Amino acid sequence: MLYNPIFQNREVAGEKLAELIRTQLNKQAAESGLKPSPIVYALPRGGLPVALPVARLLDCPLKIEVAKKITHPRNEELAIGAVTASGSVIWSNNRIFRFRFDSREKRQASLNLAMDCAKSLETKLSRACSQVSAEGATIILIDDGIATGMTIAAAATALRKLNPAQIWLCTPVLPQKLIPWLHKWGEQIIALATPESFLSVSNFYVEFPQIETEEALRYVEQQSVIRGSRE
Question: If 144 and its partner were Cys, which of 37, 46, 188, 227 is the partner (CB 3.0–4.6 Å)?
Fold first, then answer.
């Protein structure tokens, strides 16, 4: 099936998403009479170019929450779950993905490998993040697209332990059918596009390059520098 790209690149998508998030935050503030205290969390690496324009527009900290897909031990292209650096895990409910013929040891090995990758990336990026408490805050959790929802659900599970007031799951594009399931993990689901037909996030972008770790680190540092110069 052929797809027509919706966004030029992640940065442009992030600018559009930022406007929508700000509108929703203002609407909630008007309805409740309480001004939310937002903190933007990105799923690195691809979520960072989208999240930076949001953090800039909201003038709030930009932090990261690393989640990695857990792949089937006999098929590295098949994601069967996701895990964060802190060990929050989401497993796929799809029976096709189950380990009928694999031992628990192999399942645990796949989990450990994904968690080690998450820990490694978090170590490299977290040093540039602002040190702020998420307790009582509105967490704006962002990725460049949501295909299965497992990684952002795992990330939301980990962030829920920080006792935020709310968690918003935000992205430029996600499948329409996934929205009810995502409400298990976030109070608000915000997306610019929710197509019924969905194969790969990259299909919705004209430019969708791989984000290397050093580039990801620069995105985090940019917002820290901007906010630090104002304090």
Answer: 46
